Every structure is written in structure tokens, then in C-alpha cells.
């Protein structure tokens, strides 16, 4: 018996259970080492807010990290927070609120989509999925805010990369690699995340306009102006009524552009932007801070797709291609809205089958974009590729997967067959 | 300079030099394969001039296909390859190996596409950082990361090193401003990671490649995002009676929610040296001097400058000047940017270190550096990208005196170890290269390093691409770690550094 095995045999892990709920890193290490030795695949979960995204796969055991939580270190003046991966996002945001700080990447809350109510999930899940909200084009994605992490690789070894300082080019930037890897490379245990001060004020320019072409024109101009917007969306007519607020009685299609910063400057920029876009007063509503926050929170939460029965696709593409792609997708029964200032389409499809899906994929690919299937009916989920990959990248991904998880025990097949 | 151990020279490869050269001349235009010593000499070092090594051969491919063919050939014949951009790197990332083919990417020097609609530029890798801004500035755009060597450094090299710059506090480093790259792997595979669409799905290979120091692939095309130039830029020049006051001021500015575009601190020694050199009008009686710059709309900048003024006064500032014109603002920076030549006047040699620390530890680290300065009896001057905790101590010594050199090396290593000890990093923006290779074990344990090495092996099983860089060979966690300049004779002395 090797030293390592001796150590394992002395611990108290009951391996007969199907769901492990560890509270310490040592327990996670022990579970992984045992699974590695016995070739047992593990499904890794946090708060299950996004666990329906991705392929179905077979796993014998589940590792539930929801009890592996807590804030380890929060230094507002150093602009970082270090947390255990199972910590609910809500708890982190609550703590940051106390110091008037925020996670600038505004992660989506998929709870409304999947279960009709808020479930913003755990920070480990947020990082593993790398879905950033409306500020994406200004502040970057989730991965741009991860300063460092600690994780357990597929052999049960504890590894780390990065740190807590913003500027760090020591070795490969593995924080990027694990972001968006859907738990297939490491079990994240600790995350150090960059936090930023909340803007003093946020205001939103609402342009009453039902036409996508015009909306993209507004968004393009706004994003290329020095008014420095931090959000830009378009909702077609059918979603207008979802956004009726005190200062927004209009219930038709709308383009919304958010401006944030010191109060003086926000007022100046809002005025400037409405002039630059050549807008008349009757075309405009301006939401003050509170209502602006409600508006963007609804957007982040995908509330227009609350309890959606049908399918939801997330389509990312260069802004210049958005109009062309939407025009082609209109052949199908779709409802959509545009985020990221024109570069992200959230689209629901009443009817979706393998044939239609492959047509949509081809269209998007031709326009230099990609599709992720966020919510699809079960039979389609079994037959369709949730994520798309080309053969060269598949080969590289396979090698990278093996370098972290040589026996493929972490979420095997969640992203791609064989990975 | 103490000797540096590099991967074992493959004598079989050395003896086949002529054959390899003639094979490569079959693949690319024969005049683009350099083999005689006079031609090889210019490639023997990069910005870390203390280390020199002639390569076996130099190849200068002109197309992606040629890059792919060369790498494929070298992979099959087990020939080491060292990629090189503009050769301005400060950590020896593109220093040749005796038995390597040095792949000089200089012919990849064209901007491919400027796409204002999608706010991005697609370019070949050896276009300089500043050339991208020059190409888009007529429409009021710019490329944000601005390493001080931006006039000469290549964008491909920026990707390889994940270069930062004065403005990375607000705008991020290269990795945060990159949309896509085309890469050739060691086996000749050509692929693209990312593109004009944000956050390509699947594993983030774009993020992995950025800052991988040429160990994982050769970059042949880069897509960067461009930003609209800010309307107003203003800077404040503030003097403090102590380093502690300056450090507290930095922490408070950040905590107040102001994110400056740049925030720099210099200690008294460097303030005086740079002021003498460039007549920048610095407060030479202050123990520490801060330059803080804000950009944005007029009201925004005014609001932040006002807040900075209040915070500085609260923290006992001894002087405060606010730039009234752009010329004045640039004058504030002129001294800071001349820190290298200014130190060259003070001592025959100096070593520039690069470490990263938590902002709040500034005073503690500077006090430790000052203690070490006394211990080693060597003067030191400190520059600091205070906003993001990136410290650049300049240690002065005399390279002709072996004892002075030895002490300087120990001093430098002690500083970096201290950076790691207080929660910082070995390198903020210069990269590890050969310079800090052996110090990696200060920051990472064996398992961490092993995980990184497995990734290397996954993409380059024979470890032929830029071997001997980044990861320790000696495993002795030794005392390397600096940029060495002798008698002011750095390579390209006119290029601003850090």
C-alpha cells in the first residue's frame, strides 16, 4: 500500500452514498482521489441554477458543492474578494453592497428561465459558465474578472493559478481556461475575483422604436461615441409591455442605452448622446437610477423568457452581422431580444428540431458567430450538439481535458462527446 | 552576470546545421533563412541584454503556410524553435538557444483590416502596438494597452507576454483587449481562437495563449478591440512628505470609487533623478510623488480630479498641480517615462525589477526595499504603477565589480520574494522568460507547476517550442530576476521602458 493509499484508508469517507456534500477541501480531495482510483465519473454541482445547460451525461456520483461556501477574504480597498466556490452569488453581492462595490460583469440569473424565480447560483457556477451580462462590451466577461483560483484536478491534486493582484503574468493564465469550462477541467474550490466600485448614478435612455435596423444604428453610434455607454439592448414590440415602469409608459419596441458614472457626468453624457442620435423628446424616456437598475436587472435575469416552455438559444456574433442573421431567422417562429450593444441575441424558438437547428447553426457560423443551446426540449437535447466545435479545436480540447482530468471523471460529456 | 542554465544542447542537431538550413530553404524563400554568424548576430538577444546566445539559424517566414511548414519540419526533426517579434521583451522570452531555429516574425508587419463597425482591428503580429492606434486615430479611436515600449514592441509580442502599461488599471492588459488570434501549433496545425464575436465558446484557448510567452504556439494574426478616445484627459502631480501618505492616498482614491486611467508613484531618489534629467518640474523635496490621470467626459474628469484633490490634502500632500493643458500633462509624464536613462546617469549599471504587490502594502514593501538597500549597500530608486500594484525598483550597481553584481542579484531576488510574501506576484508585466524562471517555485508549488507543464506537453509533446523559458530548470528557486543595463547601453536606449 502506498503512502497515499494509506492516508486515504484512514479517512472517514462513506463511498456508498451517491451524493457527496463536502464542507472542506480535504473531503473534496478524498472524493476525487477515490473516484480517480476507481474510475467513477462525477457530476459537479453548485446551486443547480444552470445545470440544465450542457449535454446530458452519465455519472455515478454527484458532488454537491453548495455547502462548500463562505467568504474567505474581502479587501474592498484592494478591489478583490476571495470566496469558496459554492458561495451563493447573492451572498457575495450582499457583502459587496455594504461597501458600495459590485461584480461589474453582471452575471445572468437563469433562475427565472428554468424555474420561474430568481436563482443566481453559486460563484463557482457563474465562473464555470462564463455568461456575462449587459456590461460585457465595456468591462469584459466573467473571465476578465477572475484574478486567480484554487481547484482540484482530476487526480485529486490541489492546484492554483493567478493570485489576488490585478497585474500578474506569472505562468499560464489558467483562470481563463477554467472559466467557461463547465466543470470539466477542475473542481473549483476558491476564487479570487476583482470587484469594482458601483457607479454613483446610472441613467437609461429609452428610445421608443420598434425597428431592429434603426435600433442597431442607434446602438452602433452610441458604442462608438465618447459618451461611454455601459449597456445597450433592443426589445421588439412584443416585449415592450414587460418594461412598463413609472417613467416608461410606452409599451412597444424599445432601444435602451445605459450611461453610468458620477452624477454630473451622467447627465451631461445622456444629453449629449440624445443629441448625437438626433432624437426628439417624444421619442425618448429617461430612466433615473432606481428605474434604470430595475430595467437592467430584468434584462440580466432574462425575465422576458420567464418560465419559457420552448427553446432558448444564445447567439453571439459581430454586431455588423446581427441584422442579417435576424432577417434569416425570421423564417422560423422566433422571439428575440438583443443585448451587448448589438452583439448578443437571445432567441426563443417555438419549433425546433435537428434540421432547423443545423440550418440556424450554419447561418450563424457563416456570419462569424456561434450558438449555445441554453434551453432545449429533452428529445432534441439528446440528439443535438449543445456547443459547437470544429475538429481541430476538438483535438486540442481533448488534450487539455486530459492534462487536467486524465480519466475523464469531471462532468464527462457535458460539453462534447468524449471530453 | 551569473551563468544561466539552458536546456541541453542537442549535438546531433548542431552537426546537421547545413542540412537543416538547406531543408528550410526548400520550404521558404532561401534568402529568408539566415545561417552565417554575421547575419545571426542581431538576433542573439532581446530587451534582456545581459543574456546573449547566437541561434543555430534564423528563419523569416512570410506567410502562415510557411510558419506551419517550418514548425512541422522542426517538430518532425526535433529541432527547437524560438519565436521572436520585435525583440523588446524584458525577460528574455525570445533569447535564442544554441541549437534552435529562431523564428523572426518581422515580415508579418501589415494591418489586415480596420473594422470600425465592430470596433476592432485585425492585424499581423509584428505590427507595433502604437501603429494600431495610429491606424485608427483619425476616426477618434485607439488601442488601450500601452506598454511604454509601444513605439517598438509588436502586438504579437504583447499577446505572448500579456503586456500591460500605465493605463491597464482602467482598461486592462492585453488579455482584456483581445478578441481573437490565429495560432500555429508546434505540429504545424493552424487554428483560430476567438474572432470578432466575443467570448468564443468552448475552452478559452485565447486566454490560455495570452501570456504563454511563446511556449504553446506561434501567433500569426491578432484581432484587438479598439476604443473611442476619451474626450478629456487630465493629470494631477502630487507631492507627499512620506511614502505612507502616498500609499494611503492611493488606497483611498481607489476605495472612493475613482478608477484613474493611470496612477504612478516615484520615491524621492527617482523623483530627483528624473527631474534632473528631464526638467519635468517635479516636487524634489517630497519623499514620494504621485501622478494620477483621469480620462472621460469633462464633468467626469473634473469630478474625479476634485475628489483626488480632497483625498490628497487629507493625506498631507505637500504640493499639488493639475494639468491645465495637454502639453502640461505630457510634461508630467516626461520625467516618469525617462526613468531608465535618468538612472543611467546615477550609476554605471542598474537592474530593473518587476514585481506586483497589493496596493496597501506599498509602504511596507518600500520600507523593506530601503532596508535591503542598506543591507546590500546599493542605492535603489523606485517607480510604481500604484493603481495596479506593479512595482519597478531600479537597483544601481557596478557590473565591473563582481561583488557588486552578486549583491545586486541577491538584492533583486530578495525584493521579488518579498513581493510574493506579501501576497503579490513575481512579475506584473515583463513576463517570466529566463529572467525569473527559477523564482517560480517561490509562487507555485510542484503540483501547480506540474499542471502547467502538462498543458505544455499536451500541445508540444517534445518540448521544442521555446524551451527553457518560464518554468524552472534548476528547481533551486534561485536568485535571478532583473533587467540589466550597463553604462546606459541598453538595446534601443531611446525606447521608453515599463
Description of the molecule:
The complex is a heterodimer of chains A (419) and B (498). In chain A, 32% of the residues lie in helices and 22% in strands. Chain A has 419 residues and is of the alpha+beta class. Chain A folds into 3 domains: 1-198 and 389-419, Uridine Diphospho-n-acetylenolpyruvylglucosamine Reductase, domain 3, CATH 3.30.465; 201-300, Alpha-Beta Plaits (2-Layer Sandwich); 303-383, Alpha-Beta Plaits. The longest helix of chain A has 14 residues, at 25-38. Chain B has 4 domains: 11-104, Uridine Diphospho-n-acetylenolpyruvylglucosamine Reductase, domain 2, CATH 3.30.43; 111-228, Uridine Diphospho-n-acetylenolpyruvylglucosamine Reductase, domain 3 (2-Layer Sandwich), CATH 3.30.465; 232-337, Alpha-Beta Plaits; 341-486, Alpha-Beta Plaits. The interface between A and B is large, with 84 and 94 residues.
Oligomer: heterodimer
> What would the principal axes of the Cα set say about the shape of chain B?
globular
Enumerate the spans of chain A where pLDDT stays under 50 for 5 or more consecutive residues: 4-10
C-alpha Rg of chain B (nearest Å): 23 Å
**Could you say what the CATH topology of the largest domain in chain A is called?**
Uridine Diphospho-n-acetylenolpyruvylglucosamine Reductase, domain 3
CATH topology tier name of the largest domain in chain B: Alpha-Beta Plaits
Q: Which percent band covers the strand fraction of chain B?
A: 15-25%
Task: Outline the biggest β-sheet of chain A.
Answer: 5 strands, antiparallel
Shape verdict of chain A? globular
Major sheet: arrangement of strands of chain A: 4-5-9-7-8
Major interchain interface with per-chain residue totals: A-B, 84 and 94 residues
Using the 3D structure, state the CATH architecture of the largest domain in chain A: 2-Layer Sandwich
What is the mean pLDDT of chain A? 94
How big a fraction of the residues of chain A is strand? Answer: 15-25%
Number of domains of chain A: 3
Amino acid at each position: 500500500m502506498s503512502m497515499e493509499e494509506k492516508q486515504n484508508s484512514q479517512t472517514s469517507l462513506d463511498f456508498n452514498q451517491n451524493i457527496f456534500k463536502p464542507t472542506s477541501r480535504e473531503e473534496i480531495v478524498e472524493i476525487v482521489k477515490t473516484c480517480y482510483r476507481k474510475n467513477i465519473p462525477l457530476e459537479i454541482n453548485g446551486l443547480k441554477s444552470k445545470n440544465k445547460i450542457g449535454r446530458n451525461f452519465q455519472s455515478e456520483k454527484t458532488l454537491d458543492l453548495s455547502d462548500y461556501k463562505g467568504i474567505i477574504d474581502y479587501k474592498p480597498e484592494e478591489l478583490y474578494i476571495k470566496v469558496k466556490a459554492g458561495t451563493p452569488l447573492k451572498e457575495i453581492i450582499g457583502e459587496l453592497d455594504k461597501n458600495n462595490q459590485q461584480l461589474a460583469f453582471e452575471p445572468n440569473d437563469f433562475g427565472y428561465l428554468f424555474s420561474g424565480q430568481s436563482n443566481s447560483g453559486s460563484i463557482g457556477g457563474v465562473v464555470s459558465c462564463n455568461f456575462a451580462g449587459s456590461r460585457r462590451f465595456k468591462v469584459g466577461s466573467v473571465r476578465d474578472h477572475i484574478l486567480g483560483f484554487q481547484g482540484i484536478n482530476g487526480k485529486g491534486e490541489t492546484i492554483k493559478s493567478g493570485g489576488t493582484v490585478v497585474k500578474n503574468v506569472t505562468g499560464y493564465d489558467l483562470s481563463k481556461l477554467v472559466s467557461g469550462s463547465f466543470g470539466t477541467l477542475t473542481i473549483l474550490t476558491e476564487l479570487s475575483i476583482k470587484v469594482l466600485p458601483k457607479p454613483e448614478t446610472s441613467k437609461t435612455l429609452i428610445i421608443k422604436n420598434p425597428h431592429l435596423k434603426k435600433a442597431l444604428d442607434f446602438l452602433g453610434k452610441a458604442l462608438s461615441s465618447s459618451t461611454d455607454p455601459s449597456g445597450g439592448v433592443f426589445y421588439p414590440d412584443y416585449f415592450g409591455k414587460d418594461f412598463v415602469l413609472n417613467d416608461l409608459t410606452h409599451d412597444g419596441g424599445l432601444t435602451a442605452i445605459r450611461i453610468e458614472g458620477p452624477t454630473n457626468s451622467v447627465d451631461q453624457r445622456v444629453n449629449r448622446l440624445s443629441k448625437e442620435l438626433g432624437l426628439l423628446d417624444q421619442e425618448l424616456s429617461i430612466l433615473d437610477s432606481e428605474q434604470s437598475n430595475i430595467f437592467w436587472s430584468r434584462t440580466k435575469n432574462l425575465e422576458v423568457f420567464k418560465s419559457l416552455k420552448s427553446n432558448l438559444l444564445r447567439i453571439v456574433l459581430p454586431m455588423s452581422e446581427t441584422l442579417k442573421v435576424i432577417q434569416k431567422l425570421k423564417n422560423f417562429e422566433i422571439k428575440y431580444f438583443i443585448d451587448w450593444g448589438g452583439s448578443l441575441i437571445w432567441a426563443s424558438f417555438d419549433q425546433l428540431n435537428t434540421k432547423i437547428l443545423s440550418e440556424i447553426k450554419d447561418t450563424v457560423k457563416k456570419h462569424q458567430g456561434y450558438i449555445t443551446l441554453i434551453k432545449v426540449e429533452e428529445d432534441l437535447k439528446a440528439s443535438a450538439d449543445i456547443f459547437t466545435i470544429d475538429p481541430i479545436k476538438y483535438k486540442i480540447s481533448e488534450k487539455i481535458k486530459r492534462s487536467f482530468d486524465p480519466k475523464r471523471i469531471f462532468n464527462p460529456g457535458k460539453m462534447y462527446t468524449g471530453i | 552576470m551569473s551563468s544561466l542554465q539552458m536546456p541541453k544542447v542537442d549535438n546531433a542537431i548542431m552537426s546537421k546545421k547545413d542540412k537543416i538550413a538547406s531543408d528550410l530553404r526548400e520550404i521558404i524563400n532561401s534568402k529568408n533563412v539566415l545561417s552565417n554568424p554575421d547575419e545571426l548576430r542581431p538576433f542573439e538577444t532581446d530587451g534582456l541584454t545581459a543574456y546573449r546566445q547566437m541561434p543555430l539559424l534564423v528563419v523569416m517566414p512570410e506567410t502562415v503556410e510557411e510558419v506551419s511548414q517550418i514548425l512541422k519540419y522542426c517538430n518532425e526533426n526535433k529541432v527547437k524553435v524560438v519565436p521572436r517579434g520585435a525583440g523588446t521583451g524584458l525577460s528574455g522570452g525570445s533569447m535564442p538557444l544554441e541549437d534552435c531555429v529562431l523564428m523572426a516574425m518581422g515580415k508579418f508587419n501589415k494591418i489586415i483590416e480596420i473594422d470600425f463597425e465592430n470596433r476592432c482591428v485585425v492585424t499581423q503580429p509584428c505590427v507595433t502596438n502604437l501603429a494600431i492606434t495610429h491606424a485608427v486615430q483619425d476616426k477618434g479611436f485607439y488601442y488601450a494597452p500601452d506598454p511604454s515600449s509601444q513605439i517598438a514592441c509588436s502586438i504579437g509580442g504583447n499577446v505572448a507576454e500579456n503586456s500591460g502599461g500605465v493605463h491597464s488599471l482602467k482598461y486592462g492588459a492585453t488579455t482584456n483587449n483581445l478578441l481573437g488570434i490565429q495560432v500555429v501549433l508546434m505540429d504545424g496545425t493552424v487554428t483560430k481562437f476567438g474572432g470578432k464575436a466575443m467570448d468564443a465558446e468552448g475552452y478559452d484557448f485565447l486566454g490560455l495563449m495570452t501570456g504563454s510567452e511563446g511556449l504553446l504556439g506561434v501567433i500569426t494574426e491578432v484581432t484587438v478591440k479598439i476604443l473611442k478616445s476619451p474626450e478629456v484627459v487630465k493629470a494631477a502631480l502630487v507631492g507627499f512628505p512620506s511614502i505612507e501618505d502616498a500609499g494611503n492616498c492611493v488606497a483611498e482614491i481607489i476605495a472612493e470609487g475613482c478608477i484613474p486611467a493611470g496612477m504612478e508613484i516615484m520615491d524621492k531618489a527617482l523623483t530627483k533623478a528624473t527631474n534632473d534629467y528631464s526638467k519635468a518640474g517635479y516636487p524634489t523635496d517630497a519623499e514620494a510623488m504621485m501622478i494620477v490621470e483621469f480620462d472621460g467626459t469633462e464633468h467626469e474628469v473634473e469630478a474625479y480630479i476634485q475628489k483626488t484633490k480632497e483625498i490628497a490634502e487629507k493625506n498631507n500632500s505637500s504640493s499639488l498641480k493639475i494639468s491645465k493643458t495637454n502639453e502640461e500633462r505630457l510634461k508630467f509624464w516626461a520625467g516618469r517615462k525617462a526613468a531608465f536613462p535618468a538612472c543611467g546617469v546615477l550609476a554605471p549599471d542598474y537592474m530593473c525589477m518587476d514585481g506586483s504587490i497589493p496596493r496597501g502594502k506599498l509602504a511596507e514593501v518600500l520600507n523593506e526595499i530601503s532596508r535591503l538597500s542598506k543591507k546590500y549597500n546599493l542605492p535603489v530608486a523606485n517607480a510604481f504603477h500604484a493603481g495596479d500594484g506593479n512595482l519597478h525598483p531600479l537597483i544601481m550597481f557596478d557590473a565591473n565589480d563582481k561583488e557588486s553584481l552578486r549583491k545586486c542579484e541577491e538584492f533583486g531576488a530578495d525584493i521579488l520574494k518579498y513581493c510574493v510574501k506579501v501576497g503579490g506576484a513575481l512579475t506584473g508585466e515583463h513576463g517570466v522568460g529566463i529572467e525569473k524562471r527559477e523564482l517560480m517555485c517561490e509562487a507555485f508549488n510542484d503540483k501547480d507547476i506540474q499542471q502547467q507543464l502538462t498543458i505544455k506537453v499536451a500541445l508540444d509533446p517534445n518540448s521544442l517550442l521555446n524551451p527553457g523559458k518560464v518554468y524552472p530548470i534548476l528547481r533551486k528557486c534561485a536568485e535571478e530576476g532583473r533587467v540589466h543595463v550597463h553604462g546606459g547601453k541598453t538595446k534601443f536606449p531611446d525606447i521608453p521602458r515599463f
